[in-house]
Amino acid sequence: xxxxxxxxxxxxxxxxxxxxxxxxxxxxxxxxxxxxxxxxxxxxxxxxxxxxxxxxxxxxxxxxxxxxxxxxxxxxxxxxxxxxxxxxxxxxxxxxxxxx
Length: 100
Known about the structure:
Layout: E1 5-7, H1 9-23, H2 27-46, E2 63-67, E3 70-75, E4 81-88, H3 93-98
Parallel strand pairs: 1-4
Antiparallel strand pairs: 2-3, 3-4
């Protein structure tokens, strides 16, 4: 567990699903993606305003950060940084966020 960021239960489940899916093809690739996501979250925890607001997707004060083909959705005002969702970029992000 990293003291600089935390996952909501939904985001934790989404991340596990992503890593499990990648691991079916390559454990090394899954490890690289997981490490890359954690590195990105460390940077976002330092500078939470780095991400992009997407008012077209949600009126909540969330930020978005892309890494590989995934989107990190987080609350830049939280401490530790709260990861709201971990999504494949190809998903219907707007619809998923409406249900949160």
